[in-house]
Amino acid sequence: MSENIFTGTMPALMTPCKADRTPDFDALVKKGREMIAAGMSAVVYCGSMGDWPLLSDQERMTGVERLVEAGIPVVVGTGAINSKSAVAHAAHAQKVGAVGLMVIPRVLSRGSSPAAQKSHFKAILEAAPDVPAIIYNSPVYGFATKADLFFALRAEHKNLIGFKEFGGKDDLRYAAEHITSHDSEVTLMVGVDTEVYHGFVNCGATGSITGIGTALPKEALLLASLAKKAAAGNAEARTRALELEEAFGVLASFDEGTDLVLYYKYLLVLNGEEEYRLHFYETDELSDAQRNYCEQQYALFNAWFADWSKQGGIIAECM
After folding, report:
1. How large is the average pLDDT for residues 85-93?
2. How many helices (H) and strands (E) would you count in the chain?
3. pTM tops 0.85, yes or no
């Protein structure tokens, strides 16, 4: 796999909002700076965790501009309900100096058509030819890019350099076996928090995009570091990576569900970040039971990690 911007660990930034439920861009920039200071290689904005369907195109572009102006390396999500908007986000990303694009499939209209998706992807890639791009595969978007389509696109668009795979074990394995192992210049990003070990060790991923890492950056970076060493054959790292991933289990699984933004914003509130308490829609909130469960699991993980991390060895080496 190649070394490029799509290496390391990148948090998927959520969009904080003010009391009037409009975007709080100052808080967004603050969070981006904190993530880079913690050791993240870049940030992603707006993926699904950034609430892209709930923001206007102008709001999204303002968020990208503010992050870039702050000197934060930004990978821009191109999710949109039509190709024209997606192309506008790609062109804007190149104009303001984003470091990467996350190319999201066409949704709702002809979303299951490979021909329609090819045209959609091509338009996005053509709009930002100088920006490295990865295709975002996710069951949420209802379309999986297979090897034939990927290489047809890559033959014409050299800025397409890889995949973010959110689909789970089988989909990561497919991407590794049929796409990203074909060419050392094609890269694979693990796109779901529950499959970091599998992605790095079994599928040759070069990096990961994390949701839980917005709340637990040290721990998410440690898991990626242990997984990389395990992929290089370190037996102790393999054991510790599996232990850490298992302990992450419930918190990481929030990444797979429809309430992921609600859960991960609540974890930030538990960390003391009040700017993440509100959502853009007043009715978007966790139930009392969900909040209680989240609190219990967060407390359990933090207590376990405080004890487990005292063991030293490869853990201390990677922290």
Report:
1. 98
2. 13, 8
3. yes
